[in-house]
Amino acid sequence: MTDITAGGVSPPIRRVEFDTAESKARLRGRYRSEARFKAYGIAALAVAAAFLIALLSSIVMRGIPGFFQHYLVADVLVDAAKIDPEGKGDAATLRAGDYTAVARAALADAIPGVEGRQLKRELNGLLSSGAGDALREMVVADPSLVGQRVRAPLLLADEADVFLKDSGTKIRVLTDTRGVASPSATTGDVTILVGANDFADDVALVKAELKALAEGIDETVARRKARGATVESLADLEKEAADLRRRYEAAATSETLDTKTASRLVGINGGLVKVKEMTPTLVKGEVIIPLKSTADAAPGTWDIRVYETPESNRNLNDRGVAFLEELKAKGLIESQFNFAFFTRGDSREAELAGIQGALVGSILTLLVTIGLCLPIGVLAAIYLEEFAPKNRITELIEININNLAAVPSIVFGLLGLAVFLNFFGMPRSAPLVGGLVLALLVLPTIIIASRAALKSVPPSIREAALGIGASKQQAVFHHVLPLAMPGIMTGTIIGMAHALGETAPLLMIGMIAFIVDVPSSLTQAATVLPVQIFLWSDLPEPAFKMKTAAAIMVLLAVLFVMNGLAIWLRKKFERRW
Amino acid sequence: MAGWYALVVVALMLAGFALARGRAQSVAGGNYAGMHSLPSYHGLYTASLAFIPALITFLVGSQIAGYLATQSALSALPNDIQSDILRQGAALREAVNIVRGGPVGAASAEVQSAAVNYASALSAGQWITLAVGVLAGLAGLSWGLSRVSMNFRARNAFEKLVHALLWICATIAVLTTVGIVFSVVGETYRFFFDPAIKGKPTVFEFLFGTEWNPQAAMRADQGDIQTAYGFLPLLTGTLLITVIAIAVAGPLGLFSAIYLAEYASPGVRAVAKPILEILAGIPTVVLGFFAALTVAPYIRGWGETFGLNVASESALAAGVVMGMMIIPFISSLSDDVINAVPQSLRDGSYAMGATKSETIRQVVLPAALPGIVSAFMLAISRAIGETMIVVMAAGLAANLTFNPLDAVTTITVQIKTILVGDQEFDSAKTLAAFALGFVLFFVTLVLNFIALKVVQKYREQYD
Amino acid sequence: MDMRPDPLIMMTTPAQAPTTTPTKVAANNVNVYYGAKHALKDVSVDIPEKSVTAFIGPSGCGKSTFLRCINRMNDTVASCRVEGLIQIDGKDIYDPALDPVQLRARVGMVFQKPNPFPKSIYDNVAYGPRIHGLSRSKAELDQIVESSLRKASLWEEVKDRLNDSGTGLSGGQQQRLCIARTIAINPEIILMDEPCSALDPIATARIEELMEELRHNFTIIIVTHSMQQAARVSQRTAFFHLGILVETGSTSDIFTNPTDKRTQDYITGRFG
């Protein structure tokens, strides 16, 4: 390529080369950058997918246990003295009976002989305050059960339930004991002498544990010092570490157990003793489950049980664990699907809390929402798409709708608070107001979706209708609207799904109250599912965390169904004109 | 009461419809072709004429009844309560609660009698409203009946009414905006300028103050020296979380969109699109739970292994999860604008011997830039206005910091915190929430408005 | 490339007119399918170097499809399948070892609708040299841009506003900008797909003049709807009809003395 006719003065342009090493390297570089660029896209999608998987799996893993509940399933004596002392036998009396006492009696039967107020209280604490509810229903349904023994599920309290679900501590049972053990008593404080050095290893282990604790504190102190913490603020920690150090450095072979180290219990003669102090040949402790006798126990017939997680790191103390393990060993504990989760309202007791109130609240709220925003949204869309003149007012309305779709939801809450509650004096916390606010929130979505659906109906349909003498309105309402309906329904379902998941504006209008009763009218105080989730997630009990995740699973399931329905509708009625 | 009213009105409408249609049929005497409108249009028209006055009576009447009932309740309260606006409001609420059968504490005798007054006045007002409404409906009905004739254009008249109804529905969106402006602007004005509000800041203090502490004691004897309404820590907190969210969602969303629009096979798209749609459909309260219970502890643990001191409610955790929420938002908007870039530009680039990525980076993205910028603006407005994630994961501490590992608070968190629970409408604290709402509304409105304009321009360019 | 010449069909292919100049592009039994649609049937043609060859025919006859095979633009259409042999300077361009990116640097293309990139005029022209690394310095790039714009006879009109957006030019200027963009990488062949169909007659005339100048240095293949344009600018003409290459020959022969009845009907306006 040399001389050029046009321009004439221009020097030749280099031609793209293919066979030189340089050009080949350059091409390779370009393709590497191509591959890199493509990889970024795949990585971005992979991160989004990974996040979704992490989110869903974390929710499901937390939530599945929330759908189950542990029960003490025992033969319960339905004691007439506690249920119906006067023998009336009518439903009201039966309903008012003291089933908690019956349930407790059944528990006392399961672990007989427990003495001392403190211990008894802790044993009874394993049962929920609603433990007798199922039994009550059984008895009310069949009054002949009074005075009989029936097998009934007694609801466990949330701490016990969570302990069983989480396996709150690892339990090691050491049965290869070498010496004879002789307990001094069957209840109360007890000393057990052992022949061989059976506890030597344990004393050493405890000292090692104490050492590890002290070192952990030392590390924390050092880290904080490095970051410039004041000496005074660390004094407590340093003192604690020094105490621990003194304990494990002491030559004494005796060791006291406290809540910071693994707990040790001795199972002997059918009972269970919690160790408080031990030397290699002797332990002192308190009886949790009474011993049958003070007879000497031969080697191998008694054992040492180690609860690996220190008591202070558990929600259930050693006594509770010991009782539960005993009940479990007797085969009295059962896990059942928690139907009550769907049939109860909220409660302060985690094991009694359910989502029915929130579900009904959500349904009532959504009824108001759809009742308002479907007709208004569709009519507004019809006006804008079919009848509106092209002028400034129409333009203003359109800009307005588009902007409104992007206004933060909490601002709609402010609107509800200032206008509906304050100005119009509507009741707080009511599904009516919640539905109104959500209707305004999703109205733009529905208008936009409905307009798109109307737009997709070809003009030929309108022209055909007008051509046979229909008025414009008849053409729209008789011919265009029915054809646009699937698209409108799809948009409406998506809008409703959005409304169902919305939380923030409802907090503003007070739908955040603790409400036990299932709401039965539009003006009654209520809460909705997402708000219930928010309320529960704030509570410290681990059982509520499980319930929160379980409620989220219900919410997500409903949302998936709604969105699936929308997709199905879109697919089924998708029409190419 | 409203139910009874509705029932009566429906009965009136049905009667109107049936009567007018019957009358039209008898007027036509079988000659429907000679009649301008079909008998059912006469029926519909008459039913509407019965409905409209009855509805107006209800709307006006129930407001008047409510007002009169309040006045009557007030008259039962002693003077000292009547003169104090705060106590008056509390007493009224209590009385109304008694009437509605809501939660009540031990009410004083005055409140009890106020409640009785309220209930009787309200009930009287409602009965009068019902009576007037029925009369008005009947009047409309008979007027409609009187117009039935061969030549009366009932269809056109009815269609005019329908047209008016359509117009009213379309303007409800405008009314919503007006309502929002009315509520936030009014209360914000009071927050800054109402002399009756104690402890309020000046506009300057609000905008440039570095301390935010609206929760300080309100009682007169404790003074209000501790309250502070400096907006800056909220602004920096909001911006910090927004920046983190966009830093996460921007690249991820944009690259997802590029991949889906330019590279992905139909099979990949069929998998990836639903993933993004599911992510978009997850309620924010769920994301907040995930942020607080899974992501925040994870980040904290991760920070500890590097010897970093991470707050348990760090801005980072909230920001990252919020970023995840925004990914589908950015990717779907960007996907749209990338797809709107005409194929001829890509062809031009390929014909020059450009590779796909060179074409995307140097031709497609510059062409789509306005649309992508507005997608980012909408995403920023989303992030600023998002509430639940930050409420659950970001905390309440109003720290003036740019460290993503610290706890910060945001505008939305403060609005939620101030307004949830019992509140008096006449305290600076409550009004501060509306001032924050005003800022939020204003900022997001400006962002949305610009973004939508840009998108519109961009669409016009390539359409 | 999978190529199964059918002897029967080969016999029915029109004989190629003898060429005096060396052949630049040689096509042999090219078949193109869009999904199930057979868009191009057994096209065989030789295109001489440094001349203008025009493809004419009614719309949908496959002329654009064939044009897009020559720089493998059809690769970007997922449903498209090309069979047969196309050689440039004797080398198979569908050889898997050959990179379409390299091929397109040798075979430039100008499209029906002007499609300047949304960049400055300068950057539009510099785009190709930049991605192919044709300049060692800014000064050299400036020179390439200037000489390309001069060759596209656009320089005088835009030299004072090289940083303005390319999309702000008039239609004819935009198309010349696209030509300048193409010749900035100095291709051997320039494909033009109805380059004047979106332009007014004056702009068309300028482009036609430009083609006359460019043909001394480039092999130009132009698809056109306008028989007059083909007659004005081309030395050789190929007539396509229903996916078949009906006839090729020197332009004057085709227009004055066509051998095939269909060609005659077309150029006399019986259909098209």
Polypeptide structure, described:
The complex is a heterotrimer of chains A (577), B (463) and C (272). Chain A is an alpha+beta fold and 577 residues long. Chain A has helices at residues 21-63, 80-83, 91-96, 99-110, 117-124, 133-141, 158-166, 200-226, 231-249, 318-329, 340-343, 356-387, 392-404, 409-423, 431-455, 459-467, 472-501, 504-508, 529-537, 542-573, and strands spanning 68-77, 149-155, 171-174, 181-183, 189-194, 255-256, 263-268, 271-279, 282-289, 303-307, 333-337. Chain A has 20 helices and 11 strands. In chain A, strands 3, 4, 5, 6, 7, 8, 9 and 10 form an 8-stranded antiparallel β-sheet that branches. A 3-stranded antiparallel β-sheet of chain A has the order 2-1-11. The longest helix of chain A is centred in the N-terminal third of the chain and has 43 residues, at 21-63. With 463 residues, chain B is an all-alpha fold. Chain B has helices spanning 2-28, 39-75, 79-83, 85-100, 109-146, 154-193, 203-208, 232-263, 266-281, 284-305, 315-340, 343-351, 356-385, 388-393, 411-419, 428-462, and strands at residues 212-213, 228-229. Chain B contains 16 helices and 2 strands. In chain B, α13 runs antiparallel to α16 (428-462). Chain C has 272 residues and is of the alpha/beta class. The interface between A and B is large, with 93 and 97 residues.
What is the strand content of chain A? 5-15%
Question: Strand fraction band of chain B?
Answer: under 5%
Helix content of chain A: 55-70%
Q: Strand order of the main beta sheet of chain B, please?
A: 1-2
Range of helix content of chain B: over 70%
- Tally of discrete structural domains of chain B: 2
Radius of gyration of chain A: 36 Å
The H-level CATH homologous superfamily of the largest domain in chain A, spelled out, is: MetI-like
Order of helices and strands of chain B: HHHHHHHEEHHHHHHHHH
Derived from helix and strand composition plus strand pairing, the structural class of chain A reads alpha+beta
**Please, what is the CATH homologous superfamily of the largest domain in chain B?**
MetI-like
What is the second-level CATH architecture of the largest domain in chain A? Orthogonal Bundle
Would you report the number of β strands of chain B? 2
Mean pLDDT of chain B, to the nearest integer, reads 85
- CATH architecture designation of the largest domain in chain B: Orthogonal Bundle
* Overall form of chain A: extended
Which geometry of chain B do the CA atoms define?
Answer: flat
The biggest beta sheet of chain A reads:
8 strands, antiparallel
How many independent structural domains of chain A? 3
Largest interface: A-B, 93 and 97 residues
Query: Please, what is the oligomeric state?
Result: heterotrimer
